[in-house]
Amino acid sequence: MQSDKPLVSIGLNTYYGERFIGQTLDSFLAQDYPSFEIIILDNQSQDKTEEICRGYAARDNRFRYERSPDNLGTVKGYNRLSEMARGPYFMWADDHDLRDSTYISKCQSLLEESEEAVLAYTQTMLIDEDGRSLGRMPGDMDTRGMSPAKRHRHLIWNLRICNMIYGLMRRDVLNQTAKFKNIWGPDHLLLAELALVGAFALVPEPLFHRRQIREEEPVKTRVRRVMVALDPGGSRQRHERSYFLLLAELCGAHLKLVGRSSLGPCQKIGSWFLVLLSFGMRLFMPWPRLVACGKKILRIK
């Protein structure tokens, strides 16, 4: 049963999640770490999502269910969930992914052991719709022992898939950030902001299982789908923006982030250069070649 003050708050954003959300919630029920709450924000799902979630809330008071009057989308939904949290530690969750039973306890232990760490996460295993493993995903972003400038540099050059956004973080640090912005790649931008504040700590076990729920799609189709999901109430013009313009906007946001950071003048200049180089090159070069080239030019290990 839930204590009055849970140590860990989990914010789950859902929209038409009936197919997998029961499995997701069961994976949290199986955690060996009892002091948590799960806040479920339902974005006006018209399937059985509400019935399923209310069933869990009726059986276990660690579950809190809220039905939004509108479809808030990812940006507003994720930010709303972080505002509803009560615990000193917080993590986001989607309605189709799974976590092993030791996920919370091992991440929480890392944060307790390392004062410099602001976020702890585990290796990620990609699974299919039936839960079968599709292989381990890249994501070595352990930056303990690095300076803020080195953490930022490591992230800009090596962050390919933002699975660590689903890790456990210190909520007081998260509340000092801009959180999710209505922009292409808001998770990428938020992780960069967190990296400038503190270190990321990695549990070297694949305890997070990210479910692949759709087939590969053309870039234009994917971009429009993601932009609609981020902000369903946005204009059609914004939803139809080209990938080039969206990436340029994200690049500009990263430059502004560095500009208002606490890095020294020379470090800011170096970080601005890195941001411009990485974003410029990724439009014209496959990712593995981009990383190898960038490391060679800048002698990044």
Explain the overall architecture.
It is built from 12 helices and 9 strands. A hairpin with a 5-residue loop joins strand 6 and strand 7. The chain has 2 domains: 8-211, Alpha-Beta Complex (Spore Coat Polysaccharide Biosynthesis Protein SpsA, Chain A); 219-298, no CATH class. The radius of gyration is 19 Å and the shape is globular. The protein has 301 residues and is α/β, with parallel strands linked by helices. Helix 5 runs parallel beside helix 11. Strands 1, 2, 3, 4, 5, 6, 7, 8 and 9 form a 9-stranded mixed sheet that branches.
Strands, count: 9
How can the largest sheet be summarized? 9 strands, mixed
Tell me, what's the shape?
A: globular
Q: Helical amount among residues, as a percent range?
A: 40-55%
Distance from N terminus to C terminus (CA atoms, Å) equals 47 Å
Assembly classification: single chain
Question: Strand-and-helix sequence, N→C?
Answer: EHEHEHEEHEEHEHHEHHHHH
In the CATH scheme, the class of the largest domain would be Alpha Beta
Can you say what the CATH homologous superfamily of the largest domain is?
Spore Coat Polysaccharide Biosynthesis Protein SpsA, Chain A
- Our count of domains comes out at 2
**Broad structural category:** alpha/beta
Number of contiguous helices: 12
Question: What is the fold's blueprint, element by element?
Answer:
Blueprint: E1 8-14, H1 21-29, E2 36-42, H2 49-59, E3 63-67, H3 73-84, E4 89-94, E5 98-99, H4 103-113, E6 117-127, E7 133-137, H5 148-158, E8 168-170, H6 171-174, H7 186-197, E9 199-211, H8 219-230, H9 236-239, H10 243-259, H11 265-282, H12 287-298
Parallel strand pairs: 1-2, 1-4, 2-3, 6-9
Antiparallel strand pairs: 4-8, 5-9, 6-7, 6-8
